[in-house]
Amino acid sequence: MHVAFTVLFVLLFVLLCVLGFLANGFIVLVLSREWARHGRLLPSDLILISLGASRFCLQWVGVGNNFYYFFHWVEYCRGPAWQYFGLPWDFLNSVTFWFGSWLSVLFCMKIANFTHPAFLWLKWRFPGSVPWLLLGSLLISFIVALLFFWGNHALYKGYLIRSYSGNMTCKQWSRRLETHYFLPLKLITLSIPCSVFLVSIALLINSLRRHSWRMQRSAHTPQDPSAQAHIRALKSLISFLVLYALSFVSLVIDAVGIFSESDWYWPWQILTYLCTSIHPFVLILSNLRLRGVFGQLTLLARGFRVA
Q1: Of 219, 242, 260, 293, which residue has the fewest beta carbons closer than 10 angstroms?
Q2: pTM here?
């Protein structure tokens, strides 16, 4: 790839990360102020502030890792740098996926209308279980990060003492670990929260379908408040689903190492961090409190510009 295109993609990556820093930082600051003022947060706000904080930290780790890898590739591959960057990155990445899944479950529990006893029990218990679910996600993510750290340490040890099995070269050993350890581990650990996310969307779609059918049979207009709530939640979740899927696919392919040494490294990093940078704006616009504060800041900025 031409140097000019590389510089362009680097600048786009930096711009994307700056937007992510601002949006996630805004969510954390606004909800932290609410927490300090009232001494507690609603379950939805608790998930939002956790998701925003994890994404904010993840982007800082990602920026440091990507630039160190790009400008110091030899030292990065032969030294322990990828272990130092990998441990917090794998932890925060897993946490972010779990927090995003719990947010979709919360949307489903608040809006979907089912009369099944199991669903009604979950709808009653879920809000009170949010703090424990978040703590459980932290614990699971810590275990996942340790498993990735073990693989990175084995890879670094192989580079350091050249203790490869048989007559394998350094690159063959690295590729074998990526294919037979990192890729299955990433598929397993990311597929579980993604499955939770997809199930919640499927339930919400089914609830909207059943609700629309009941309204048609009773000759009510489909533009009732319940249907509108379903549609708003689905718009938010479907936009999240697209970004979520892009992030999931990019992380799985990244485990194979296809783009780690190619000219498409920076475009692929842009795709990887697209969800953590763009989705916070969707959350801000779909949350009444966050949208209100954002609107006030926008008016204030316009006032300063006019003055």
Answers
A1: 219
A2: 0.84
* 35/269 Cα distance (integer angstroms): 34
Q: Report the alpha-carbon distance of residue 204 to residue 207 in Å, rounded.
A: 5
Q: Look at residues 193, 200, 43, 199 and name the one whose alpha carbon lies nearest to residue 109.
A: 200
User: What is the distance in angstroms between the CA of the first residue and the CA of the last residue of the chain?
Assistant: 46
CA triple 53-298-22, angle to 5 deg: 25
How confident is residue 60, by pLDDT bands cut at 50, 70 and 90? very high
- The Cα–Cα gap between 97 and 58 comes to 11
Say if residues 17 and 56 touch (Cβ distance below 8 Å): no
Inter-residue contact 49 to 41 (CB < 8 Å): yes
Instruction: Return the closest-CA partner of residue 196 out of 137, 131, 135, 275.
Output: 137
Neighbours of 291 (CB within 10 A): 13
- pLDDT one-digit tens code per residue, 139-182: 999 999 998 888 777 666 665 555 555 555 555 656 666 777 77
Amino acid at 223: Q
